[in-house]
Specification:
heterodimer, A: Nuclear Transport Factor 2, Chain: A, Gyrase A, domain 2, six-stranded mixed beta sheet, 11 helices, B: 131 residues, alpha+beta, Nuclear Transport Factor 2, Chain: A, 4 helices
């Protein structure tokens, strides 16, 4: 076997062992690495190794089979098959694991025993993961639609009657890396605002939310809850007070504006209620502040956690808030009209290019680590705030919808509780709520689940009977079988 | 004919949209893998029909090779594929790698591989929407 072929075999062996660091001496200092899964070619050993580490974090059970290999003094070319299992991409509910298997050719140019150029070509048949979500005219498009298509959106969910891009072309490991180490841009135009405007804006919002807002000032934000008269959670909006007589409830997937408007129409409140043309984006990640400051007319540095401010971003009037769904540093930008939404989107991408900004959907892998859930966790369960672990957000001394019912729950104690679960093994996609059993009895259900890259294990958040103790062993009945799980606290990760 | 020559003739025949000439390069039961167009064609007859179908919606197509390594039995090459769709008039270009494997009287197999990231074959992007 020639030395160049030996180098190829060594590279394949290290890749199978997921040993990026072991590859440092096989790349030339100024090597070029081109593979179809990257937006652009990678230049230089350091950049290649950095991306190799990220890529390998998302793969396991790697096997590379070379069928045809031909080497000469300048390098080596090969044809073969790559097999791997994706980490963090849930199995299908029928048990098929999420895999990255494909035929390929690779061309290596080699100088002085080191790889100078690595180019790979794929048989793309197996890489087309799934068909794109079917669209219908009954749901709205976000004003950033064009940008998300360009960014390679693959899956949408319908959220507040609007298509919500949730899956892009990247692997979850790549997206997690971008979110926790760099910066990401999310189209959350579907995150609608219920705007309450007028002299009684605060009075109405006090009435439909559980948290006392008497100290709320212009520029403040609050995480709060809306309940029905039975004390069941309707949604968990982020409240913003961008102007003196205006409050926005930035809500999850529920018709909150209809609810608020109906209550306002009872005539007890001097307000107008509407859904304004305000479609936010989220800029999340450690470099989010640097990106935003490049575009903002007023520096954003001093904006505290859960505060908002008027600003001009890329020449567009907007409200900027230090909020978001990542559990880390991040901002939301609410342009005051959709007319120039794509201008805003493109300006953020350009400003973020020096930080290698990535367009992603909400990253559930990171959210679950931080114990962050969504309206989908709470609704259709008759869950009250105490059961959700949000008792601190209920202020019984003020009047609000659901107070009498919640006072009773507070006095008697909740029947159920929200807990974290360390679930054994790989888990499939959560397409329905999985029963949680203790002995032979059903004691609750997993309502939120994903892989954790920080802990390298499967996590769940469950609503279970109040009698279940911390560190208890329970069984989770998911589509791939019954597996053990250990009850724990949330958040799972605090940094 | 050497595998090198087969490769050159494949590129020339495909670029001329000459499906019969493409098919003539193969063994009677040869295999053409062209996943870009979703094609896995077996046998001269199927190859001729499949390539004709691929080409009928194209104003033009061009496949060129820039480098290759070969043994007597096979050649692995890299180059570029460009085409213009009749319906959209859109120019598409991507890196391509072609493997030709010798058979008894012609090519036993010609397989094509791509670096198509820019045109996103794994999402229903522009290129698929325009049919």
């Amino acid at each position: 076997m020639s030395k160049n072929q030996e180098l190829l075999e060594k590279f394949c062996a290290l890749f199978e062992q997921r040993d990026a660091d072991g590859m440092s001496d096989i790349w030339a200092e100024d090597a070029l690495y081109e593979i179809p899964l990257h937006d652009t070619a990678l230049h230089g050993r350091e950049e290649i190794l950095h991306n190799m580490r990220i890529g390998l974090r998302g793969l396991e059970e790697i096997r590379i089979v070379l069928d045809n290999v031909v080497a000469d003094s300048g390098g080596v070319s090969a044809e073969g098959t790559f097999y791997a299992r994706n980490i963090g991409v849930p199995s299908r509910v029928d048990g098929r694991p999420s895999r990255l298997d494909f035929r390929f050719t690779l061309i290596l140019e080699i100088e002085d025993g080191k790889i100078k150029r690595y180019s790979e070509y794929f048989d793309t048949r197996n890489l087309r993961m799934e068909e794109r979500t079917r669209l219908s005219t009954a749901s709205r498009r976000s004003p950033y639609w064009e940008g998300t298509v360009e960014a390679g959106v693959a899956h949408y969910m319908v959220y507040n009657h609007m298509f919500f891009p949730v899956v892009y072309k990247h692997s979850p490991a790549e997206e997690y890396e971008a979110l926790t180490k760099r910066v990401t841009l999310w189209d959350v135009g579907c995150e609608r605002q219920t705007e309450v405007r007028g002299p009684d804006a605060l009075k109405l919002v006090q009435y439909i939310t559980t948290r006392d807002l008497s100290k709320l000032k212009t520029g403040d934000c609050r995480y709060t809850l809306c309940c029905d008269p039975e004390g069941h959670i309707l949604c968990d909006p982020v409240l913003l007070k961008p102007y003196d007589d205006v409050i926005w409830l930035s809500h999850g997937d529920v018709d909150l504006t209809l609810w608020a408007r109906a209550i306002a129409m009872e005539g007890k409140f001097d307000v107008t209620v509407c859904e304004p043309d305000v479609a936010p984006v989220q800029i999340q990640g450690p470099n989010s502040l640097a990106v935003l400051n490049k575009l903002a007319s007023k520096p954003v540095d001093g904006l505290g956690f859960y505060k908002c401010m008027e600003n001009t971003i890329a020449g567009i009037e907007a409200i900027v808030s230090r909020t978001g769904w990542s559990g880390g540093l991040g901002y939301e930008v609410f342009p005051l009209s959709s007319d120039k939404a794509m201008h805003l989107w493109n300006a953020i991408l350009e400003a973020g290019s020096e930080f290698d900004i990535m367009v992603i959907g909400p990253n559930i892998n990171r959210a679950i680590e931080k114990g962050v859930t969504d309206t989908g966790y709470h609704v259709n369960s008759n869950m009250n705030p105490y059961e959700a672990g949000h008792g601190r957000l209920v202020h019984l001394e003020k009047e609000f919808i659901g107070r009498d019912a919640l006072r009773k729950v507070h006095e008697e104690g909740p029947a159920r509780q929200t807990v974290g679960l360390f679930i054994e093994g790989n888990i499939p996609l959560l397409e329905w709520f999985w029963p949680v059993e203790s002995g032979k009895s059903k004691v609750g259900e997993v309502r939120w689940a994903a892989h954790s890259f920080a802990l390298n294990r499967s996590l769940g958040i469950a609503l279970v009977d109040a009698s279940i103790q911390q560190r208890a062993q329970v069984t989770v009945d998911h589509p791939l079988g019954k597996v053990l799980a250990t009850v724990t606290t949330i958040p799972f990760v605090t940094d | 004919m050497s595998v090198d020559q087969m490769l050159n003739q494949f590129c020339a025949a495909f670029s001329a949209k000459n499906a019969e000439a493409v098919a003539a390069l193969f063994d009677e039961q040869g295999l053409l893998e062209f996943p870009f167009a979703g094609q896995r064609l077996v046998g001269r007859r199927e190859i001729a029909n499949g390539v004709a179908r691929m080409c009928e919606n194209l104003d033009s197509v061009s496949i060129s090779v820039r480098s290759k390594r070969a043994t007597e039995q096979f050649v692995i090459s890299e180059g570029r594929m460009s085409f213009r769709r009749t319906a959209s008039k859109e120019e598409v270009s991507c890196a391509i790698s072609i493997v030709v494997e010798r058979g008894k009287s012609g090519a036993a197999r010609i397989s094509t591989y791509y670096d198509t990231y820019a045109i996103r074959p794994w999402v229903d992007g522009k290129i698929f929407a325009t049919g």
